[in-house]
């Protein structure tokens, strides 16, 4: 039987045991990660013999008086996590319950392990195909390097000629301040201070768990690029980054990504570039030899007509404002 559990009803020991036992065990679904990015998260849980055997994290909130489900910041994928004890057809049942509970669902992203099962449910739900880029690091570095495109190899050589200094750090503040100065103005809608604070809190917890790696580059005294990675269950996630004009020209992020590939070459790790749906960025990640992997995002709108109307008007005004050039998309 599937239960909907409020945050206070979730047994986090059972939860994390289920996540780590699942085939798609990922850091974003662990209770301590969710506690940072969505403090009041809820869940759908299938329990058998006193153990959680299937779970679906629900970072839901109340918005405009209605239950709303979305994707928390800094969280690439969630979805439904199954174990060998999971019931047949459990994904379809959980998806049905989620859609009934939340009047509005926007961009709730499922993990790649859900993809094949959700393919069969596209006629019933608004499941939007999205893609990330994976690079398996199980080959020696020279073989991985051969898969780089000609342009990527050339830009890596340029980075080395620029005499960039690369160093690891336990201080995320330079990365946040760098992003505020050089990138934030490009983000549609801006970035709230609470989102930055969430990243600080998340980095602190990830460092305590030994799952964060932060690398900066500089051509002098000032940081010109920074990259944050999360490492868990043989996956390295490219979680957050920033580069100024100098960092882009000197290819600081290329150097850092190449260093990560070099460090973990010949291991069971996979580098997940967490590709956004932006062609230029996806092309950049593909240039390292990374291949496309499909996953789904769920949308659902059962809001009353008058609320939909108000929301559509607000979005139309926003798009008009955006297209005037006041805002700029990354």
UniProtKB/TrEMBL annotation:
InterPro entries: Acyl_CoA_acyltransferase, BioF2-like_GNAT_dom. Residues 155-271 form the BioF2-like acetyltransferase domain. It comes from the Bacteria. SUPFAM superfamilies: Acyl-CoA N-acyltransferases (Nat). This is BioF2-like acetyltransferase domain-containing protein.
């Amino acid at each position: 039987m599937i239960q909907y559990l409020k945050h206070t009803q979730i047994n986090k020991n059972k939860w994390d045991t289920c996540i780590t036992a699942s085939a798609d065990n990922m850091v974003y679904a662990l209770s301590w990660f969710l506690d940072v990015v969505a403090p009041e998260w809820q869940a759908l849980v299938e329990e058998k013999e006193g153990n959680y055997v299937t779970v679906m994290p629900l970072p839901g909130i109340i918005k405009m008086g209605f239950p709303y489900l979305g994707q928390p910041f800094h969280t690439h994928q969630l979805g439904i996590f199954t174990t060998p004890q999971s019931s047949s057809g459990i994904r379809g049942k959980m998806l049905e319950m989620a859609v009934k509970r939340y009047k509005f669902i926007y961009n709730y992203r499922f993990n790649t392990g859900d993809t094949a099962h959700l393919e069969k449910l596209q006629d019933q739900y608004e499941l939007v195909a999205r893609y990330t880029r994976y690079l398996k690091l199980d080959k020696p570095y020279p073989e991985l390097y051969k898969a780089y495109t000609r342009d990527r190899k050339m830009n890596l050589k340029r980075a080395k000629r620029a005499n960039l200094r690369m160093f690891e750090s336990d201080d995320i503040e330079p990365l946040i301040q760098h992003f505020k100065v050089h990138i934030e103005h490009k983000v549609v809608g801006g970035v709230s201070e609470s989102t930055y604070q969430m990243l600080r809190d998340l980095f602190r917890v990830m460092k305590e768990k030994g799952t964060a790696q932060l690398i900066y580059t500089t051509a002098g005294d000032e940081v010109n690029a920074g990259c944050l990675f999360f490492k868990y269950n043989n996956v390295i996630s490219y979680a957050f980054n920033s580069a100024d004009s100098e960092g882009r020209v000197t290819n600081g992020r290329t150097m850092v990504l190449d260093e990560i590939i070099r460090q973990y070459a010949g291991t069971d790790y996979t580098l997940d570039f967490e590709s956004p749906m932006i062609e230029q960025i996806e092309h950049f990640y593909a240039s390292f030899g990374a291949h496309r992997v499909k996953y789904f995002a769920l949308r659902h709108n059962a809001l009353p007509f008058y609320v939909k109307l108000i929301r559509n008007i607000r979005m139309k005004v926003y798009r008009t404002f955006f297209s005037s050039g006041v805002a700029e998309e990354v």
